[in-house]
Design brief:
Blueprint lengths: L2 H16 L21 H8 L3 H7 L3 H10 L4 H8 L15
């Protein structure tokens, strides 16, 4: 489907947990992901909280960070999950060129 729909779904889910509705119930508990036109892979990654799958589908890094934090992942936990997708960077000082 549309990558926009995935971004909108994740953003709305994160916001549902942040918005103060005047109750002690987390708004994410009754979140309806069927309101979004997600592909089968997108829906599965979202429902399963598959960080690597969401990254591979193209979820923006900043939104992925917010999603992971809202889903209860510690920074080191999702950093380890995403480590295989990173590229090694060789840095050199100006004097080493």
């Amino acid at each position: 489907m549309s990558l926009y729909q995935l971004h909108r779904c994740v953003y709305d889910w994160v916001r549902a947990g942040e918005v103060n509705s005047g109750t002690d119930v987390d708004g994410r508990l009754n979140f309806d992901d069927t309101a979004y036109e997600l592909s089968v892979d997108e829906r599965k990654a979202f429902v399963d909280r598959d960080v690597a799958g969401l990254y591979q589908l193209g979820l923006h890094e900043v939104l992925l960070n917010r999603f992971c934090r809202a889903a209860g992942f510690a920074r080191d936990d999702y950093r380890k999950i995403l480590e295989p997708f990173g590229e090694t960077e060789e840095r050199r000082g100006r004097w080493q060129r």
